[in-house]
Design brief:
- The complex is a heterodimer of chains A (about 120) and B (about 110).
- With about 120 residues, chain A is mainly beta.
- Helices cover about 0% and strands about 50% of the residues of chain A.
- In chain A, strands 2, 4, 5, 6, 9, 10 and 11 form a seven-stranded mixed beta sheet that branches. In chain A, strands 1-3-8-7 form a four-stranded antiparallel beta sheet, with no helix packed on it.
- In chain A, a hairpin with a 3-residue loop joins strand 4 and strand 5 (about 40-50).
- Chain B has strands at about 5, 10-15, 20-25, 30-40, 45-50, 55-60, 60-65, 70-75, 85-95, 95-100, 105-109.
- In chain B, strands 2, 4, 5, 9, 10 and 11 form a six-stranded mixed beta sheet that branches. A five-stranded antiparallel beta sheet of chain B has the order 1-3-8-7-6, with no helix packed on it.
- In chain B, a hairpin with a 6-residue loop joins strand 4 and strand 5.
- The chains are: A mainly beta (about 120), B mainly beta (about 110).
């Protein structure tokens, strides 16, 4: 069974630009969550999508948005990039990701975004 | 608001000795915890979990202890091996997954 895939793996952008990251979950998984990892901050939850609907959202500004398609693939968009957006962006999929559900999340390798 | 905290950003241990990684949480509603391990250039992978109905869960060289009254959990690795060198995150699922900031473990051969 293929794991979670993320594209691109590396990205360099300049301030003010926008970027779109893509995540393909494990086949059969319907929940996709996105995280930002920066040194000293651990994994910060961005949002979770389930059946094409955003079900949970973390404390990030509106410049960060996402969507999920009918095949459960998800995209994350960041508009008006800032230097502080440089980070590793991870997506994770799980079977249903119900709030409080105890299934694991399976992570992709991440997209390393550098904003110059 | 960091609801799951790992106060030690790094830890170095000699091969064969015990590694103890600590995690504290603030939300008393958390009742399930997971540890993830992350190598550079890879996503985190699930390592071990514990439910609040237990105070200990063991899987091979890895044991997780939970002290609910102290809102504290720890991961013990015995014996530590160089391949255990990675960043370890504790996490608690509650509406969303809350992750700690991670502890970078280095096992010295």
């Amino acid at each position: 069974k293929a794991g979670v895939t993320q594209t691109p793996r590396y990205l360099i952008k300049t301030r003010g630009q926008q970027v779109t990251l893509s995540c393909s979950p494990i086949s059969g998984h319907r929940s996709v969550s996105w995280y930002q990892q920066t040194p000293g901050q651990g994994l910060q939850f961005l949002f979770e999508y389930f059946s094409e609907t955003q079900r949970n959202k973390g404390n990030f500004p509106g410049r960060f948005s996402g969507r999920q398609f009918s095949n459960s693939r998800s995209e994350m968009n960041v508009s008006t990039l800032e230097l502080g957006d440089s980070a590793l962006y991870l997506c994770a999929s799980s079977l249903d990701g119900r709030a409080g559900a105890y299934n694991e999340q399976f992570f992709g390798p991440g997209t390393r975004l550098t904003v110059l | 608001d960091q609801q799951v905290k790992q106060n030690s950003p790094s830890l170095s241990v000699q091969e064969g000795r015990i590694s103890i990684l600590n995690c504290d949480y603030t939300n008393s509603m958390f009742d399930y915890f997971l540890w993830y391990k992350k190598y550079p250039a890879e996503g985190p992978t699930f390592l071990i979990s514990i439910s609040s109905i237990k105070d200990k869960n063991e899987d091979g060289r890895f044991t997780v202890f939970l002290n609910k009254s102290a809102k504290h959990l720890s991961l013990h690795i015995v014996p530590s091996q160089p391949g255990d060198s990675a960043v370890y995150f504790c996490a608690a699922p509650y509406n969303q997954f809350y992750f700690g900031t991670g502890t970078s473990l280095t096992v010295i051969p």
